[in-house]
TrEMBL record:
Organism listed in the record: Sinorhizobium meliloti CCNWSX0020
Classification via SUPFAM superfamilies: FAD/NAD(P)-binding domain
Protein name per Swiss-Prot or TrEMBL: FAD dependent oxidoreductase
Domain FAD dependent oxidoreductase: 9-354
Gene Ontology CC annotations of this record: cytoplasm
GO molecular function: oxidoreductase activity
Lineage: Bacteria, Pseudomonadati, Pseudomonadota, Alphaproteobacteria, Hyphomicrobiales
Amino acid sequence: MTDNIITSAVIIGAGIFGVSTGAQLARRGIRVTILNDGPPASGASGRSLSWLNSSRMRSEPYHRLRMAGIDRYRTLSARFPDADWLRFDGGLTWDADDATNGIDAAYRHEVSLGYDARRLAADEVAAVTPGLDARAITPPGAIFNPGEGWVDLPILINLLIEEFAKLGGTLVTDQGAARVVVEGGRAVGAETGAGNRFPADAVLLATGPAVPKMVAQAGQIIEDATPVALLVQTKPLAHPLRAVLNTPRVAVRPAPGGTFSLDADWAADEGVKMREDGGRDIDAAVVDALLAEGSKVMEGNPKLEIASIGVGGKPIPGDGEPVLGALKAIPGYYLAFSHSGATLGLIVGELLAYEVAMGAEHPMLATFRPERFTSR
């Protein structure tokens, strides 16, 4: 623990990491200002599939952190048992019927960790979770993870902002993009595009896919593997599907109001084209193909109609692992950058607030430190 007493903090970014950390710091009595270029959840958090899980294979520390993240959502769910924006109805996944199929290895790995997993043949799925077209499931079968769920991040973020405001926190959304101010070798606050400065004892950068470039302005390195993401939200549909589906050609997640969220890497790769002016064009034929793939895996093959499309960077560090905690080269400068923003949203806010307020490192974040990229 350091001798520095933190009384104020500035957070750049009003996605789930920024708002969650802001609420946790405000609970500790710290004066917090969150700066965002536009409304909350207008970045990656607003176009996230938001699947709450720790399935498949990853490092042991990452798995433990994700499980702690899911635990915090279960605590939240107990407070809001009837919420239509936070559900634990399980997740179902299967792979293509080719050499890339890893269902058997994934199942054995999940069982070895004590992660709740059930291996199912196509004709067994209907008895476990509703709403699937079993014909879409490949011969190696599927894995059902009953402990998984999903969250609607914009709704959660707005809920946290309400608490944040009641605790005296300030949200600024109308002054353009902000930057971290570094003076005398340490972070001393932030400055908005409008030229207003917000001094603080600590600064958290939580700007999703923009984190690596913003950190580079301070001469630091965060390796970046951010791709473009495409998330399609459907119009309301009466349908029995409740589990999150992760399939070879499409991921489908139930959403509030009888809507569904769909994404796929191939759709983003093929359907989003960059323009010379920095904007993006969306190929309507690719979006239609994504909707068709979603229909194929849903019982009755319903007609899915577009309500909205979200396009932008999907935050992924270069090595796939989260980047969390202090930039040791610049005292007072903290980072939150990870692909799994939804699953980690609440626990990361809690642990980063602990580190900022206490001036101490939390052991659960030991392997996720930013300096791992400069030490290679």
